[in-house]
C-alpha cells in the first residue's frame, strides 16, 4: 500500500510552524497586546511562552503514547470513537475559525492599506486559491518553501525594528510591569492561544520523518515565536508608544511604512509586502492543510485532498461572517488568543489524562 | 417517508465517500522517490520491467518455417510483397553439392545495395559449403565464415526477422533451414559538427549527430570506463526506435536506473520520432511549465553528468540526449562552467540567475511599481517616468503586453525566416516596432527599455526549455501585477515556489540540494574549485560518493589537507 503523504524533517517543521505563528505579529496581535498589557505588553508573549512550554507536554505525551497514530486516531484510542471524534471536530472547528479570521484580517488590512481600489473579496479569493493550491501540493512543498523563507523573515524582523522608527525610545516601555505582575500573569495565561500552531504540530507529528523530534520542534517554535513577538512588540511600543496602537490596528505594517532607503527617499514598504504576503499565505496553507488532513483523519477518509475545496469554502464563508474589521479583531481576540489556548492545550491534555486513567496505549 | 429517505441519504453518502476512496482518484499518492527512507512508489507498470532485459533466449512468437518456400511465402505476406515495391527478394544458388537455394531479403534504400552485394551475396556464391556439414551446423558456418562478422546474427522467429528487415538489415534464408540477419544498413548520416545551441569558447567543439551509435561512441570517447553500461531498447510497436540507456554501473543509483528502465520499457506507443517525444512520455510532470529533464547536444556534458551519477538516454534520429535527474540549478549551468576557473564560472552563474529573475519578473515589477506602489521610487525618477507616460494613449499593462508580444513575434519570425534575411527581421523589429511605437505614443521609452532588457536577459538563460518556461511565466506575472500589483506578484511567486518545491525529477526533489538541504554540495549556484569538489551530488545518492581524493593536488605542499592517520599509514606502506 502506498504511503499517502509526504514527510518533513524537524527543521522544516520548525520553519513552517514558526512562519505560521509569527504571522500573528504582522496582524492585529501587537495592537491587542498593547490594549491589555500597556507598556509591559512585550512581556505577555514571554509569559505565555513559559506557560505553553509546560502546557504542550501533555499533548506531546498523548502522541508519544500512540506512536504512528494521528491526533484524531489518538483521541479515539483515548476516549473511544464517539468522544474522540467529537474532540476531533472541536479541534477542526478551532482551526476553521483561525483560518477564517486570519483570512478576513489580512484581506481587510491589505484592501485598506495597500490596495484601496481593489475589492476586498477579490483579495480574499486569490489568497484562498493560492493557499488551496499550496496545501494541495502537500506538506513537503510547504515545508521546503518555509525553509527558503526563513532567511527573508529573519532579515525582515531584523530590519523593521531597527530601520523603521524615526524616534524610538525604550523609555516608552516604562513602567516595566505595566498593569502589574499579577495582571500580566493573567494576561499571559489568557494569551496562550498565541501559540496555537502547536496544535498543528500535534497533527503533523505522524508526518515528521522522526516523530520523536516533535518535542524539540515544539520548544524551538515556542522560543522563536516568543522572540519575534517580543521584538515586534518592543519595536511597536518604542515607536508608537502605548497610545499609538489604539489608532493603528496593524502597527507592524505602519512600522514597515516608516522604513525608507536613506537618501533615495524611497519607501521599501512594497518589498515587505512580498514577505508579508508570503508569510500569511504560508500560515493559511498550513491551516488549510492541517484542517483538511485532521478532518479526513477524524472522519476516517483515506484522502485529504478532496476536502481542501470544502474547507476553503468554509474558511471563505467564515471570513465573511464578521460585520466589520473591529468585530473580526474582537472575535479573533476571544476565539484564537483566549479560547484557543483551551482548544490547543487543555483538550489534548484531557485526552492524555483520559488515556492514562483508562490505561490506553498503543498495542 | 423516513424509510424512503434513508436509502437516498445512504446512497448520497456512498457517492460522496467514493470521491475519497475511488482507486483512480488516489490524489495523495506520492511519486517515485530516490530517498532511502521512502519506500513509496505508485507506478502502474509491471515491476519486472525494472530489471534489465534478459539475453535473448528461446524465440518468442511465430517460428520460421523450415521449408524455404513456405518461409518466403509467409514473409512476403507479412511485408505486403509485391505491393511494397522497395522490398527486394534476391535468390542465390549456393555452391554446394547438390546446390542449394538461398534468399536475401531487404528493403532497397534502407539497406545499402552495394554492401548487400559485397558482404552477403558474393561470399554466399563463392564459399564452398561442404556436403558433410551437418544441417544443424549450417547457421554457425554462415555466421562464422560467410557473413560479415560482428554484425550478423541468427534469428529464430518471424517477428525477429521482420523487425530486422524493417530496420534496414538483410535477411538470409536458405533451404537448409538457415535464417540470419546481417546488418548492412547505412542510413544517411553526417559528421559531428559544432554545437548550435550550446556554444562554448572553451571545451570540446563537438555535438551529437542523428545516429545513436555514433552518439554513444562520442560519449565513450569522454568516459573510458568499462563500467559505462549501454542498455538498448526498441520503443514503439510500429516504429521500434532504438533507444539507449547509459549509466556508469558503480556510480549511478540502481533504483534510479531501474526507474528509468521501467519507464522506457513500459511505453506503449506507435513510436517516437525524436527524443523530445520520449522526454514527454517519461518525465515526471508532463503538464508543468518547468522541464524536469535536461536536453543537451553536447557529449561532454552528457559524460560529466554520467560521472555525477545521472543516466543518459539516446534515441536514434535525434542529435541530442536526455539527462535525468536534474535539479533547478542544472538549468543555470552552462557546459562552459566546468572549463572555466571557479570564480569566473560562479560569477557567470550569478549573472544568469539575475538574468532569470529579470526575464521573469522585470516587466511585472515595472507595472506593479508604476501602477500601484509608486512610493517605492525616488521622487525625481517617478516624475520622469510619469511625465513620459502622460502622452501615452494605452494603459501601462496593455503597452507592456503589446511590446512583449511584438518581441515574441520578432523572435519567432527570426527563427523561421531564411538565415540570409534574419538580420533584417531584427532591424525591422528594433526600428519599426520600437521606435515607431514610441513616436506614435503607444508606449513610453521606459517601457521599451524594460522590454528590451527582459528580452536580453532571456537570452542569457542557458537552457532552451527553461527559457521557454520563463517566457510563458513572464506573461502570467504581467497579468498578476496588472491586476493586483505586488500582491499578485507575491502570490504568483508563492505558487511558483510551491510548485518548484513539489516537483521531482526521477525521484530527486527539484530544489535539491537547497530544499531539502543536503550537505556536501559544492556546485549549485556558486561553484567550488574543481579540486575541492570531492563529492558527487549527494541528492543523486550515488553508489560511489567520492570523485576526488582529498589529495587531488598532492604536489602542492601549501594546498595539502591535514594529514590523517590513514594517510601516514598509506605512506609508510
Explain what you see.
Chain A is mainly alpha-helical. Chain A has a single domain (10-357), classed as Amino acid/polyamine transporter I (Up-down Bundle). Helix content of chain A is 73%, strand content 0%. Chain A has helices at residues 10-22, 29-37, 43-65, 71-79, 81-114, 120-137, 139-164, 181-190, 197-204, 214-240, 244-247, 251-257, 269-298, 307-320, 325-357. The two termini of chain A are 21 Å apart. The relative contact order of chain A is 0.23. Chain B is of the alpha+beta class and 573 residues long. Chain B folds into three domains: 26-53 and 191-326, no CATH class; 68-182, no CATH class; 349-508, no CATH class. Chain B is built from 16 helices and twelve strands. Chain B has a five-stranded antiparallel beta sheet, with helices on both faces. In chain B, strand 4 (170-174) and strand 5 form a beta hairpin. In chain B, helix 6 (212-222) packs across helix 9 (299-308) and helix 12 packs across helix 15 (464-502). The chains are: A mainly alpha (363), B alpha+beta (573). Chains A and B meet through helix 6, helix 7 and helix 13 of A and helix 1 and helix 15 of B.
Question: What is the gist of this entry?
Answer:
The complex is a heterodimer of chains A (363) and B (573). Chain A has helices at 10-22, 29-37, 43-65, 71-79, 81-114, 120-137, 139-164, 181-190, 197-204, 214-240, 244-247, 251-257, 269-298, 307-320, 325-357. Chain A is mainly α and 363 residues long.
Amino acid at each position: 500500500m502506498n504511503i499517502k503523504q509526504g514527510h518533513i524533517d524537524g527543521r522544516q517543521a520548525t520553519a513552517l510552524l514558526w512562519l505560521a505563528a509569527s504571522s500573528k505579529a504582522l496582524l492585529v496581535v501587537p495592537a491587542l497586546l498593547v490594549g491589555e498589557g500597556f507598556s509591559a505588553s512585550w512581556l505577555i508573549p514571554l509569559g505565555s511562552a513559559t506557560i505553553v512550554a509546560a502546557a504542550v507536554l501533555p499533548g506531546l505525551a498523548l502522541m508519544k503514547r500512540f506512536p504512528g497514530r494521528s491526533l484524531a486516531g489518538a483521541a479515539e484510542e483515548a476516549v473511544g470513537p464517539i468522544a474522540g471524534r467529537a474532540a476531533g471536530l472541536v479541534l477542526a472547528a478551532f482551526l476553521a475559525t483561525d483560518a477564517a479570521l486570519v483570512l478576513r484580517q489580512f484581506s481587510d488590512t491589505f484592501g485598506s492599506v495597500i490596495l484601496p481600489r481593489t475589492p476586498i473579496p477579490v483579495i480574499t479569493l486569490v489568497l484562498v486559491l493560492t493557499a488551496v493550491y499550496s496545501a494541495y501540493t502537500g506538506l513537503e512543498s510547504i515545508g521546503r518553501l518555509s525553509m527558503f523563507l526563513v532567511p527573508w523573515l529573519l532579515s525582515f524582523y531584523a530590519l523593521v525594528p531597527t530601520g523603521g522608527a524615526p524616534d524610538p525610545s525604550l523609555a516608552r516601555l516604562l513602567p516595566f510591569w505595566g498593569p502589574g505582575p499579577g495582571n500580566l500573569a493573567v494576561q499571559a495565561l489568557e494569551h496562550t492561544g498565541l501559540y496555537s500552531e502547536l496544535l498543528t504540530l500535534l497533527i503533523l507529528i505522524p508526518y515528521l520523518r522522526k516523530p520523536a523530534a516533535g518535542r524539540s520542534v515544539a520548544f524551538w517554535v515556542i522560543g522563536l515565536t516568543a522572540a519575534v513577538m517580543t521584538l515586534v512588540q518592543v519595536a511597536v511600543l518604542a515607536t508608537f508608544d502605548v497610545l499609538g496602537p489604539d489608532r493603528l490596528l496593524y502597527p507592524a505594517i505602519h512600522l514597515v511604512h516608516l522604513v525608507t532607503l536613506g537618501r533615495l527617499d524611497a519607501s521599501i514598504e512594497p518589498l515587505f509586502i512580498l514577505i508579508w504576503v508570503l508569510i500569511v499565505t504560508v500560515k493559511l496553507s498550513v491551516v488549510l492543510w492541517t484542517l483538511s488532513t485532521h478532518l479526513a483523519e477524524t472522519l476516517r477518509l483515506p484522502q485529504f485532498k478532496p476536502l481542501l475545496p470544502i474547507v476553503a469554502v468554509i474558511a471563505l464563508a467564515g471570513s465573511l461572517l464578521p460585520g466589520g474589521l473591529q468585530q473580526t479583531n474582537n472575535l479573533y481576540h476571544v476565539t484564537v488568543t483566549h479560547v484557543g489556548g483551551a482548544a490547543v492545550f487543555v483538550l489534548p491534555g484531557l485526552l492524555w489524562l483520559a488515556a492514562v486513567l483508562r490505561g490506553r496505549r498503543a498495542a | 417517508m423516513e424509510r424512503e429517505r434513508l436509502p437516498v441519504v445512504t446512497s448520497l453518502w456512498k457517492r460522496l465517500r467514493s470521491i475519497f476512496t475511488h482507486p483512480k482518484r488516489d490524489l495523495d499518492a506520492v511519486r517515485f522517490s530516490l530517498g532511502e527512507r521512502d519506500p513509496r512508489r505508485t507506478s502502474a507498470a509491471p515491476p519486472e520491467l525494472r530489471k534489465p532485459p534478459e539475453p535473448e533466449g528461446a524465440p518468442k512468437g511465430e517460428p520460421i518455417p523450415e521449408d524455404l518456400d513456405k518461409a518466403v511465402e509467409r514473409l512476403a505476406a507479412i511485408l505486403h510483397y509485391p505491393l511494397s515495391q522497395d522490398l527486394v527478394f534476391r535468390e542465390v544458388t549456393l555452391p554446394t553439392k547438390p546446390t542449394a537455394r538461398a534468399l536475401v531479403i531487404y528493403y532497397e534504400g534502407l539497406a545499402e545495395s552495394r554492401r548487400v552485394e559485397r558482404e552477403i551475396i558474393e561470399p554466399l556464391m563463392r564459399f564452398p559449403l561442404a556436403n558433410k556439414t551437418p544441417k544443424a551446423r549450417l547457421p554457425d558456418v554462415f555466421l562464422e565464415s560467410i557473413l560479415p562478422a560482428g554484425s550478423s546474427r541468427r534469428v529464430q522467429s518471424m517477428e525477429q526477422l521482420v523487425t530486422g528487415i524493417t530496420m534496414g538489415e538483410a535477411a538470409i534464408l536458405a533451404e537448409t533451414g538457415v535464417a540470419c540477419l546481417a546488418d548492412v544498413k547505412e542510413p544517411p548520416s553526417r559528421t559531428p559538427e559544432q554545437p548550435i545551441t550550446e556554444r562554448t569558447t572553451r571545451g570540446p567543439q563537438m555535438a551529437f549527430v542523428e545516429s545513436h551509435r555514433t552518439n554513444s561512441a562520442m560519449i565513450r570517447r569522454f568516459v573510458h570506463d568499462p563500467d559505462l553500461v549501454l542498455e538498448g531498447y526498441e520503443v514503439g510497436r510500429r516504429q521500434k526506435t532504438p533507444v539507449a540507456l547509459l549509466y556508469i554501473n558503480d556510480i549511478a543509483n540502481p533504483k534510479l536506473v531501474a526507474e528509468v528502465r521501467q519507464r522506457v520499457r513500459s511505453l506503449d506507443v506507435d513510436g517516437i520520432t525524436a527524443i523530445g517525444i520520449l522526454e514527454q512520455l517519461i518525465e515526471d510532470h508532463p503538464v508543468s511549465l518547468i522541464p524536469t529533464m535536461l536536453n543537451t547536444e553536447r557529449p561532454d556534458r552528457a559524460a560529466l553528468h554520467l560521472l555525477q551519477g545521472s543516466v543518459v538516454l539516446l534515441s536514434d534520429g535525434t542529435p541530442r540526449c536526455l539527462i535525468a535527474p536534474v535539479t533547478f540549478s542544472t538549468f543555470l549551468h552552462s557546459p562552459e562552467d566546468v572549463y572555466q576557473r571557479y570564480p569566473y564560472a560562479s560569477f557567470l552563474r550569478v549573472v544568469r540567475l539575475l538574468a532569470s529573475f529579470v526575464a521573469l519578473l522585470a516587466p511585472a515589477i515595472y507595472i506593479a511599481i508604476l501602477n500601484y506602489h509608486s512610493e517605492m521610487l525616488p521622487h525625481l525618477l517617478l516624475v520622469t517616468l510619469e511625465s513620459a507616460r502622460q502622452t501615452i494613449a494605452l494603459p501601462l499593462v496593455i503597452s507592456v503586453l503589446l511590446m512583449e508580444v511584438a518581441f515574441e513575434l520578432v523572435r519567432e519570425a527570426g527563427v523561421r525566416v531564411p538565415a540570409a534575411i534574419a538580420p533584417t527581421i531584427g532591424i525591422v523589429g528594433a526600428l519599426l516596432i520600437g521606435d515607431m511605437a514610441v513616436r506614435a505614443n503607444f508606449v513610453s521609452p521606459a517601457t521599451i527599455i524594460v522590454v528590451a532588457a527582459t528580452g536580453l536577459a532571456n537570452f542569457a538563460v542557458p537552457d532552451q526549455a527553461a527559457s521557454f518556461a520563463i517566457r510563458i511565466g513572464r506573461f502570467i506575472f504581467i497579468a498578476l501585477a496588472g491586476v493586483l500589483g505586488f500582491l499578485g506578484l507575491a502570490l504568483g511567486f508563492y505558487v511558483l515556489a510551491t510548485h518548484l518545491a513539489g516537483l521531482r525529477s526521477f525521484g530527486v526533489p527539484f530544489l535539491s540540494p537547497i530544499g531539502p538541504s543536503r550537505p556536501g554540495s559544492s556546485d549549485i549556484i556558486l561553484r567550488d574549485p574543481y579540486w575541492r569538489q570531492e563529492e558527487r551530488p549527494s541528492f543523486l545518492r550515488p553508489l560511489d560518493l567520492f570523485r576526488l581524493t582529498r589529495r587531488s593536488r598532492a604536489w602542492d605542499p601549501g594546498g595539502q589537507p591535514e594529514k590523517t592517520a590513514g594517510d601516514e599509514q598509506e605512506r609508510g606502506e
